[in-house]
């Protein structure tokens, strides 16, 4: 074979993929991933697969594994515009692990997928830092992930994140609609803001239609619009598990896309109906801002945004006091927002009634 010199052939780097930058990103993220380590985790970052010692499940009589996967939608565009990358990971963990805890499962481990137009090592490490911090708040380990560089498909500053998680619950402690009874109380847990749903509507109304700037200080929000829109999603996993340990819980509902009524209906049996009284709380100012600015009907807002409630617990009436005390001790703003009734003439599993408190 003849040797050719003086020419430049095609290469992965020439195509836009920087392997060295990817390696640098891995090195930067290792310290954050280490903070999520649980005793069941084997090995370190960099293997082809994350390892979790399943012998820990021998303590269960009949362990059920719960899994979920999700992303954070178009909220990533707010992070991109602001150049803030270390909070969006909290949103990702919340979207995955708060789905898992709904059935009463303890979060065990999570993996992430980060797709970028160009690998900026510090930026990728900041994304993983946020995911790792979220995993600590959820009590789970971050056992691995993937960072993919897609030049030509995404712009240099574009990115997206997704994740998958696994949890475990004892079969006879599985929560859900089959446990819900007439007379149960509906306890609402306050959201930290918009969380990670409805951003296509929010961006359309505030940024596109109204032409607001993310740097604009909004008096009613008490901070800039960008700071409000980037507020991390609250992670309720450990709060929900604390409830399960301290009192009887029949069901949880994670209020995400579709709104409060639709998500609560998912854990209500066909024979029963959930009534939630709007007068028991006042949605945060950002919800009014979106509705008023875009002339968005209340029904549309409620089926798109969480309206100030991020998680619901359905508990027996006699468990209410202990549940509220447990949540208060953990710094969670919670209140009785409704009850479970007979189906009667109702055609839906859950409904909001009354007007929001002023």
Automatic annotation (TrEMBL):
Q: Which Pfam families match?
A: AIRS, AIRS_C
Q: So what family is this one in?
A: Belongs to the AIR synthase family.
What name is this protein filed under? Phosphoribosylformylglycinamidine cyclo-ligase
Q: GO biological process annotations for this chain's record?
A: 'de novo' IMP biosynthetic process; adenine biosynthetic process
Any single GO molecular-function term of the entry would be: phosphoribosylamine-glycine ligase activity
Instruction: Note the Gene3D superfamilies from the entry.
Output: PurM-like C-terminal domain, PurM-like, N-terminal domain
Q: Which InterPro entries match?
A: PurM-like_C_dom, PurM-like_C_sf, PurM-like_N, PurM-like_N_sf, PurM_cligase
Coiled-coil ranges from the UniProt annotation: none
Q: In which pathway does it act?
A: Purine metabolism; IMP biosynthesis via de novo pathway; 5-amino-1-(5-phospho-D-ribosyl)imidazole from N(2)-formyl-N(1)-(5-phospho-D-ribosyl)glycinamide: step 2/2
User: Any idea where the PurM-like N-terminal domain is?
Assistant: 64-169
Task: Name the UniProt key words of this record, in alphabetical order.
Answer: ATP-binding, Cytoplasm, Ligase, Nucleotide-binding, Purine biosynthesis
| Intracellular or extracellular location(s) | Cytoplasm
Domain PurM-like C-terminal residue range list: 181-346
Per the UniProt entry, the Enzyme Commission number(s) are 6.3.3.1
Q: What reaction does this catalyse?
A: 2-formamido-N(1)-(5-O-phospho-beta-D-ribosyl)acetamidine + ATP = 5-amino-1-(5-phospho-beta-D-ribosyl)imidazole + ADP + phosphate + H(+)
Q: Name one GO cellular component term.
A: cytosol
Classification via NCBIfam families: purM (TIGR00878)
User: Gene name, please?
Assistant: purM
Which domain of life does this protein belong to? Bacteria
Q: Which organism is it from?
A: Streptomyces echinoruber
């Amino acid at each position: 074979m003849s040797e050719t010199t003086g020419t430049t052939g095609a290469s992965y780097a020439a195509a836009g993929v920087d392997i060295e930058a990817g390696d640098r990103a891995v090195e930067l993220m290792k310290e954050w991933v280490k903070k999520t380590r649980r005793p069941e985790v084997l090995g370190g970052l960099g293997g082809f697969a994350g390892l979790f010692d399943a012998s820990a499940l021998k303590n269960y009589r009949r362990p059920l594994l719960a899994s979920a996967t999700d992303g954070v939608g178009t909220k990533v565009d707010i992070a991109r515009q602001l150049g803030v990358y270390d909070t969006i990971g909290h949103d990702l963990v919340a979207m995955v692990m708060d789905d898992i805890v709904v059935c009463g499962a303890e979060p065990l481990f999570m993996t992430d997928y980060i797709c970028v137009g160009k690998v900026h090592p510090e930026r990728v490490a900041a994304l993983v830092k946020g995911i790792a911090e979220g995993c600590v708040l959820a009590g789970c380990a971050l056992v691995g992930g993937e960072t993919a560089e897609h030049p030509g498909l995404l712009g240099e500053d574009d990115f997206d994140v997704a994740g998958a998680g696994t949890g475990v619950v004892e079969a006879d402690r599985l929560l859900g609609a089959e446990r819900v009874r007439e007379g149960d109380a509906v306890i609402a847990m306050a959201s930290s803001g918009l969380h990670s749903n409805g951003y296509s509507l929010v961006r359309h109304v505030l940024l596109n239609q109204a032409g607001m700037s993310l740097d604009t200080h909004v008096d009613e929000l008490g901070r800039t619009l960008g700071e409000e829109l980037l507020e991390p999603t609250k992670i309720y996993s450990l709060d929900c598990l604390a409830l399960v340990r301290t009192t009887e819980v029949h069901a949880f509902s994670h209020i995400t896309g579709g709104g409060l009524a639709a998500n609560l209906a998912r854990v209500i049996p066909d024979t029963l109906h959930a009534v939630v009284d709007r007068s028991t709380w006042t949605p945060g100012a950002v919800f009014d801002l979106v509705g008023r600015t875009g002339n968005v009907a209340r029904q549309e807002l409620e089926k798109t945004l969480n309206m100030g409630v991020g998680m619901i617990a359905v508990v027996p009436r006699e468990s209410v006091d202990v549940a509220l005390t447990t949540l208060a001790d953990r710094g969670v703003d919670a209140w009785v927002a409704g009850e479970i009734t007979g189906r009667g003439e109702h055609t839906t599993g859950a409904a909001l009634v009354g007007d929001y408190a002023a």
